[in-house]
């Protein structure tokens, strides 16, 4: 059985995951099973999933609208009401079948409905498999501010089924790859080198690398589950990346950029800032910029855009005592947390990104 064992739960891969889900469902005498999906996973993943579930317990499907813009308390209210109307009780269980929005929001709903019911996550995107699957972060956005409301609580199980990757577009696969590349940059030169040598993005390429990437995040989270020290390194590229994502999500004249694409931009910016402040090797910095821009393309930023993005930094969750804290690199796999950065250097970083 291909499995990663954490302190609180297991992450089980492919067919073995269905066996583990069925074991949980059939030994816990649940009153009802609720499956939360969005419109996309309802259409392309649900039937495949349900054919593998073996239980006599009633299964109810709750569908939410797809997209980060629906990761809100308003969506939670709709699901909480649906659970109540369908007679969910404290002996019910929620199965979250979807990407990071479904697993983050579904986990938050499970943690708060009747003060907490059991839940299992079945991530269906590469991004959710390598990021949202580990660490027990559940929550919702507050307007345009990402993940401002939430709770850390682990699921009973995470089932990673790489066959779901076949439902994704190349751009969705690239979005998830950004988090894997981040794991290499903050933790493992070997993982970074393997990923940058990939010739294409097939499911077979990803299976071993997903296992490795999830293992890296698991090791970091177990050292620091409540993000006081080591776990902060997982925010590399996310301080500016989240601000860029929020800005493009809410600006009427902008087109939304996928999370991983924003993180890729954030990592380029963070590498340049690392060069300026921590003497991060310029050749490594240039290689990272060239590789990521080749993979993700280039986004245009005006001075107005950059000022608005910098303004959003004050809402970053890593901030303490009014300080905006960056994760930077002294070298690949040598991160440094709680770094303070002047706005002028951030502008220089955007100039470096553009040129």
Automatic annotation (TrEMBL):
InterPro entries: Dehydroquinate_synthase, DHQ_synth_AroB, DHQ_synth_fam, DHQS/DOIS_N, DHQS_C. Residues 176-319 form the 3-dehydroquinate synthase C-terminal domain. It comes from the Bacteria. Residues 62-174 form the 3-dehydroquinate synthase N-terminal domain. GO terms for molecular function: 3-dehydroquinate synthase activity; metal ion binding; nucleotide binding. Gene3D superfamilies: 3.40.50.1970, Dehydroquinate synthase-like - alpha domain (1.20.1090.10). Keywords: Cobalt, Lyase, Metal-binding, NAD, Nucleotide-binding, Zinc. Catalyzes the conversion of 3-deoxy-D-arabino-heptulosonate 7-phosphate (DAHP) to dehydroquinate (DHQ). PANTHER family: 3-DEHYDROQUINATE SYNTHASE. This is 3-dehydroquinate synthase. It comes from Aurantibacter aestuarii.
